[in-house]
Amino acid sequence: MPQRVGLALDLWMTTLTALWLMLPAYMSNMLPVFVGGGRPIDGGRVWKDGKRVLGDGKTWRGLLLAPLAAAALTFPLQWLAENTAWGAGLGFPAWGPFPAWFVLAFMLGLGALTGDAVESFFKRRTGRDRGDRWFPFDQLDFVVGALVFALLGATLLDLVGLTEGNLFFSLFTWGRLLVIVLLTPALHLLVNFIGYKIGAKDVPW
Ligand code: CTP
Ligand code: MG
Fold first, then answer.
1. In the predicted model, is pLDDT for residue 1 greater than 70?
2. Cα(14)–Cα(8) distance, rounded to whole angstroms?
3. Ligand 1 pocket by Cβ (under 6 Å)
4. Residue 107 above 80 pLDDT?
5. Residues 6+ apart with CB under 8 A from 9
6. 154/170 Cα distance (integer angstroms)
7. Burial letters 104-118, b for 16+ CB under 10 A, else e
8. What's the rounded Cα separation, in Å, for the pair 169 and 87?
9. Across the chain, what does the average pLDDT equal?
10. Each residue's pLDDT tens digit, 56-76
C-alpha cells in the first residue's frame, strides 16, 4: 500500500474509533430527553442571584437513569467488538474486559451528564434560561465531563486490579482525544437538529 494511502486510512480509523469509543457518552447525553423528568437536582432552589441553581432541565432521573441505560446499550457494541470481525478485523476496540467495560461505559455516561449539569450552573449564572443556547459550552460540557470521569473510573479500576494498566490511556490516545474534541460540537449540533425535526427536542440546538 502506498504510504499516503496508509496514512489516510490511519487517520480515518483514528476518527471512527474515537467516535465509537465515545458512544456511551453520546447515548447518555441524548437519553435524558426520553428517561429524564421528575425531581430537579437543585430541588427547586435558587442561587444568590435569584436564578435557579441548575433549573428544571437537570433532573435526578436524567442524571442517573441515562448513564445506566447507556451502559446497558453499550453491551451489544462491546459484544460486536469482542466477538465479530468488527473488532478483531476492522479494529474497533472494546471498552475493556468484563466487568471493567461496564464501569467505564457508565462513567463515560455519568461524566457526560455531570459535565452538562455543571454547565447549566454557569449558564444560569450568566442569566441564560433553561434551553437557551450557549455555544460552544453546550457542545463541549459533556465531552469534558465524560473524559474526566472515564479517567477517574479507569484509574480506580486499575487500582483495584480489575484491569491490567489504565484503560483510559490505552483507549483514549492523543489522536483520538483530538478527534473527539474537534468533531463532537459539529455532531452534537447535527443530532440536535435531527432531534428537533423529529419532535424529540423543543429547540434545534
Ligand atoms: N434532562 C433531564 N435531566 C438531566 C439532563 C437533561 O431530565 N440531568 C432532560 C430535560 O428534560 C432537559 C432535556 O433533557 O430539558 C434536554 O437536556 P439539555 O438540552 O441539556 O437541557 P436544557 O433544557 O437545554 O437545559 P440547560 O439550559 O440547563 O442546559
Ligand atoms: Mg447543557
1. no
2. 10
3. 32-33, 36-37, 55, 57-59, 62-63, 113, 116-117, 120, 123, 130-132
4. yes
5. 1
6. 10
7. bbbbbbbbbbbbbbb
8. 19
9. 96
10. 999 999 999 999 999 999 999
pLDDT digits (tens, 9 = 90+) for 137-157: 999 999 999 999 999 999 999
Nearest ligand to residue 128 Cα: 1
Closest by Cα among 189, 16, 205 to 128: 205
Cα 141 to ligand 2 centre (Å): 7
Distance of alpha carbon 167 from its chain centroid, rounded? 16
Residue with the smallest CA separation from ligand 1 atom 15 is 57
Which ligand neighbours the alpha carbon of 137 most closely? 2
Amino acid of residue 118: V
The total of other beta-carbon atoms located within 10 Å of residue 195's CB is 17
Cell readout for 174 is 492523543
pLDDT confidence of 2, banded at 50, 70, 90?
A: confident
